[in-house]
Design a protein that fits this description.
2 copies of one chain form a homodimer.
Chain A: H1 5-10, E1 14-18, H2 27-37, E2 43-47, E3 53-54, E4 57-58, E5 72-75, H3 79-92, E6 96-99, H4 109-125, E7 128-130, E8 137-139, E9 144-145, E10 158-162, H5 172-177, E11 182-187, H6 196-205, E12 211-216, H7 222-232, E13 238-242, H8 247-257, H9 264-274, E14 277-279, H10 282-294, E15 303-307, H11 310-322, H12 332-339, E16 352-353, H13 360-374, E17 379-383, H14 388-398, H15 407-414, H16 419-428, E18 432-435, H17 443-450, E19 455-456, H18 459-476, H19 491-502, E20 507-508, H20 510-519, E21 527-530, H21 533-543, E22 547-552, E23 565-569, H22 572-585, E24 590-595, E25 601-610, E26 614-621, H23 625-629, E27 632-636, H24 641-650, H25 668-684, E28 688-698, E29 703-705, E30 708-712
Parallel strand pairs in A: 1-2, 1-5, 5-6, 6-7, 10-11, 10-12, 12-13, 13-14, 15-16, 15-17, 17-18, 18-19
Antiparallel strand pairs in A: 3-4, 8-9, 8-11, 20-30, 21-24, 22-23, 22-24, 25-26, 25-28, 26-27, 28-29, 28-30
Helix pairs in contact in A: 3-4, 6-7, 7-9, 10-18, 11-18, 13-16, 14-15, 19-20, 21-22, 24-25
Chain lengths: ~725, ~725
């Protein structure tokens, strides 16, 4: 296997920094200081045109003056100097660079051209680089810090990949405050050379990294992202935040790193397909990621709640329920054991509510251990473990009563030993999260954080952190995804498309569309074209009444409500009337006599091409509800059977596919095959721009495509 | 108007505390200390059986020994002492009490009996009390603190009503950390006497309180809650968190304050009806409440975003979009003005992204003021204003370069003046929220907090705080709600119900149900009962083909898929066949010949009675989709026209009610009238337990009730 370009970039033995000086106001200086101060033990070469030393290190005027070709070049220079400097360093043999400098693709065409030139130079000299317009990297294993801020040097287990530099640098104090520590963090910038997927692949294999988080404004190569993530996510959790999917989000992101954003619903589907857990805030991304990185995986959905306050206990239970977990009553035996430790009126049922109780050891260690031992639960949330935080809250009022003992001494005297509590998740292989309102001003909180137990500042969040683990349980249980082989192109289908294009059509007509679909095994209505009353009668007799009568011409994309369709025609008399009327309204267009399929379960399948993702398949509720309810889901083609099945389970109305109000269960494998076929057709026929099969009706168990629209595009890449 | 019982309770001139001692380990002592230390200037009387002084104050052995009847009694005594002490104090004329002691309704039948006795004594002596099982109150205006913790004495503007004591006491340091200050906070406990609605009414009229937040585990008197809130919410925001609506949430809550929780969907509807903004975490409740309490109301949905980092700017925009706000491009003129202050490649469009920029005055004050002056926006979110927080992040690395100047001195030297920035919302009447990752370790954050500008620790949250203000704009714009007068009882309807009950029916049959509905103006299908083939033919001829043929007997509650219904009968031959078949399958039951109403838009209306709320009306998507999509909404009856209209707008599929895919717009006033009628029928006929009108079909614009089920209950209160 080819070595990932990030390996050397994150683990250099020698680093040259251009853009650092002896002025502490400069960003480059701050970044060089981070190299020097945060434990890097390799060789460090400041590049400076005039200074003899920079930050106490011998400085060099150019690449050529260096005693060796450094493994890594860090550039924080004016935009115009980037290309010359990269050329200099490729000249001496440096193979990795991080380009912090901005002013490229994100600022417009001129910058984009410069970025292209940069890519060319790199390609030519086999240099791999991060950026431009990024904010550096962190590798706590080395340690190496190339950001502007001070790093927590204790190695962590959370890997971060970010299209925003802020989330790798400006949040370092935020993360420290919350006890969250990176393994590696990578700010990707414009991704001109090394991209997010390279980073994902690297962290997927990095042993220090136990969970991966991604901040995403746009994915360039969707298919590679999906396939890379699918390899990682069954064993290592990947979480992502995506904010580019709304109008202003997309505009803001474009001006930021020049990333092209896609609609939110598309990314929602892509993340599901990839096995990536979606987060909706940077806070959740960090905190849930940290929970995955530090806790044993969840093995079931049974949650225990231990609290000393009813409100938070209720909130935790409620949020666990919403996330599909259960907070079930403990067995009588377990309750009896717990009851020995708690006040008489306190509840032992789950939540265990100790009420106002001063013995923190019972809350933090004894009851949790009883519960984890019992085998009755898969996860645990504890609320209310507090030490100095509580004391600080009351000390001011009682200091006189405390006989003048200073606050710090009281805190020290009352300090609790949480060693056993912190060891519980490891000991029992069961994850635990903590809810506390006291933050770092409480010594218990700090002990938990230092012991790699995630602490959340509200009960809802502690529950949601656990629910995030539950999401990964579902991903671990996914059936293996085998990339499907594409079928052969049907020459007959190619002929249909070519004939239509040659005839100047922008779409296939309904009959052509269904013929094409049928060639790929998609079940469609029995139907015949009729150009005369005789043909209509003959067709209807062959198909059998009742029938539908429709105008059939490629320009008619939607027929409803325009007199171009008549349904439920039951006899020859009605047929002739319908034929005449439809033919007249359709200005003499061909008429389609079609088997009448009725059923109250109407579905839709379709295909749209999205930049970066190629053809994507849609499935959802069809008929009049498609627009009104927007109960749809997307995946990128091609679809494996597992992926198609998952689409069927995505929709809110999925109950309709089971046996439902006297109707038989849908043939889900037939439905899945339609979705796979739609994706395959798009991949095999690049001239097809869009597919819309709506409705697909479930009369009995079997789906039938009742109407079909296939839009063509003259030039498709 | 009657004085609210909380007025005296929150503003006493004299307080007796029973349960405090000279032992600082006791909760009662901590609460007494809060009275003494946190600024209460009235008279304070510790009650203690043996001590001569408590906390330096003369102690009294009993109520009778006191020099006066104190305005307020605070009880933190063992459960068994509560009733005797309350009796003693009512005996000397004390009219208000706060009962912290637990062990009442929340622990079971014995406690419940004691609570009833307590209520009786209070009623007898006109004492009003809070609790039992509560945690006290805070009134920063007096000031008075009856909780166990130290209170921020600077008066705030946020009123809190809580069914969990923790959220009034244990979160005081949490709130201080986030700059949030109460006006008044009330822990309600078991609500044996004074309840949440009393508190809501009080804070609604309290001038110090600019916004009200409520933590709710169950509402006892739903109708009073709705009516009280409806009076307050058009001018003062009320926000609520409800966590009792899931299985474990309900169980946890019940064991906590003994509150009876209702299903989540019911509370969702009730909050909408009341104009209450729902929050889904205690964090949002506090932070959004604080935003409402401190910021001018939002007057439109146009948001400006100013940032020095792209990621957060994108996240803010995305979340504003999701919440229905727009982040639109500024006018060219405004952009030109902004461009003069920012680097050449920075974006002036909105979001304004200054990129890495050191002049915080531009970010915090100058650009925000330009934007607010422009008249182009209704709200502003600023990300990235930071002072000492940034310095602390880099100081360690650069302290040698700083020439040994201590961190504090550098912080002081670089301190920014945010006076003008903080004054902006007041000056322009436009709300502002701040996003910062640095928390209280940053002096800018502290300045904002002290200046009553809400600071959020992530960009998404700052945007969601603004979106919460947008929710209140919609509530302010609600049409006035006039409580509707109930119609007269229809004697004919009463007769139908009585006849059915006398006949031993547990439900009306379909024909009876529709007759009853029609008496209250509900449009139903034309239909006739047929007991013979002749009658069937006659009925069908009178109604006109096509018709539906249904078995009609009260025990048949659902007909689909059992051979008890045949649809689309088009002629006499088919009618006779259908009649025979349905009559046979129905074991000779009456047969209903019914006008055939077809249409793809099927709705449902219904009624269920919920404890605490009485009859509640349901509206939603009908037919097979009712169960599969659960696109429904609830309100408590009776419904005003405005409330019924709002229900129609609640469903996700509301587009279906407009002109839709060739179908005419629904007659929404006819639909609203059906909902009002359903509520009125339930109020006028207490024997009716449930109503289920499904489907209501829109063939054209007018809704018709096609099937109806009315369930009876022998004993209804």
């Amino acid at each position: 296997m080819k070595e990932n370009p990030l390996h050397l970039l994150l683990n250099p033995q020698s680093i040259a920094v251009a853009g650092a000086s002896n002025n502490p106001q400069k960003m480059g200086t701050l970044q060089a200081l981070s190299v020097i101060k945060d434990g890097f033990t390799g060789r460090f070469y400041p590049i400076h045109p005039t200074e003899k030393t920079v930050l106490g290190h011998k400085a060099y005027p150019s690449a050529q003056a260096l005693p060796e070709a450094p493994d890594l070049l860090l550039l924080i220079v004016p935009t115009s100097l980037v290309i010359p400097m990269v050329e200099d360093f490729t000249g001496i043999g440096t193979k990795r660079a991080i380009i912090i400098s901005a002013g490229f693709r994100e600022v417009g065409p001129e910058g984009a051209a410069m970025e292209e030139r940069l890519k060319e130079i790199a390609r030519l000299h086999k240099m791999r680089f991060l950026g431009p317009n990024c904010m550096g990297i962190v590798n706590t294993a080395l340690p190496l810090n190339l950001t502007i801020g001070k790093m927590d040097k204790r190695p962590g287990s959370l890997g971060m990949i970010s299209q925003s530099g802020t989330y790798v640098t400006q949040t370092l104090p935020y993360l420290h405050e919350r006890g969250i520590r990176f393994s590696k963090a990578i700010s990707c910038g414009n991704e001109a050379n090394i991209d997010m997927v390279d980073a994902l692949e690297y962290l997927g294999e990095d042993e220090q990294t136990k969970a991966i988080i991604m901040y995403i404004e746009g994915i360039k190569d969707g298919r590679r992202f999906i396939e890379t993530a699918q390899k990682i996510t069954p064993h290592k959790p990947v979480l992502a935040q995506y904010v580019g999917g709304s109008a202003s989000g997309a505009r803001a992101g474009l001006s930021h790193t020049g990333s092209l954003a896609g609609p939110d619903f598309l990314y929602e589907g892509i993340f599901r397909q990839a096995g990536v857990i979606r987060c909706h805030s940077i806070e959740d991304l960090y905190a849930h990621g940290w929970t995955h990185a530090t806790q044993p995986p969840l093995r079931g959905n049974r949650l225990a709640v231990v609290t000393n306050s009813g409100g938070p206990g209720t909130a935790i239970s409620h949020n666990a329920d919403l996330g599909g977990m259960t907070v079930s009553r403990f067995s009588d035996a377990l309750q009896a054991k717990i009851r020995e430790l708690i006040p008489p009126h306190a509840s032992a049922a789950n939540p265990v509510d100790l009420t106002y109780h001063r013995d923190m050891n019972v809350l933090s260690t004894q009851i949790p251990e009883m519960i984890l031992q019992s085998g009755e639960v898969d996860g645990l949330v504890v609320h209310g473990s507090v030490g100095s935080g509580f004391l600080k809250m009351v000390y001011d009022h009682m200091k006189e009563m405390a006989g003048g003992i200073p606050e710090e001494d009281v805190v020290r005297q009352l300090a609790q030993d949480l060693t056993e509590a912190i060891a519980l998740p490891g000991k029992y292989g069961i994850p635990m999260t903590i809810s506390s309102f006291f933050g770092r001003l409480d010594d218990n909180t700090v002990k938990y954080m230092d012991g790699d137990i995630p602490v959340f500042d509200s009960p809802e969040k502690a529950a949601r952190g656990m629910v995030s683990l539950f999401s990964h349980l579902k991903i671990r249980k996914r059936k293996p995804i085998v990339k499907p082989a594409l079928p052969e192109v049907s020459p007959e289908a190619s002929r249909i498309v070519k004939t239509a294009l040659d005839a100047g059509q922008n779409a296939l007509d309904e009959r052509q569309a269904k013929q094409l679909l049928a060639l790929y095994g998609v079940p469609t209505t029995r139907e015949e074209i009729a150009r005369s009353e005789d043909e209509a009668l003959k067709a209807a007799n062959a198909i059998g009444y009742p029938v539908a009568v429709k105008a059939c011409f490629w320009e008619i994309m939607h027929k409803t409500g325009k007199g171009l369709i008549e349904l439920n025609i039951r006899n020859s008399e009605a047929l002739l009337a319908a034929f005449r009327s439809v033919r007249a309204t359709g200005n003499g267009a061909d008429v389609l006599i079609q088997e009448m399929v009725s059923g109250s379960r109407e579905l839709v399948a379709g295909m749209t091409r999205f930049p970066g993702f190629g053809p994507c398949v849609l499935f959802g509720l069809g008929g009049v509800f498609t627009e009104a309810l927007k109960d749809t889901t997307f995946r990128a083609a091609p679809l494996s059977g597992v992926e198609a099945d998952e689409m069927l389970n995505d929709i809110r109305a999925k109950e309709l596919l089971g046996p439902f109000r006297g109707m038989p269960a849908a043939d889900v494998s037939a439905l899945a095959s339609i979705l796979q076929a739609v994706g395959n057709i798009a991949l095999l026929h690049p001239e097809i721009a869009e597919i819309d099969l709506n409705p697909i009706i479930l009369a009995g168990p079997s789906p039938v495509v009742v109407d079909a629209l296939i839009v063509l595009a003259r030039v498709i890449q």
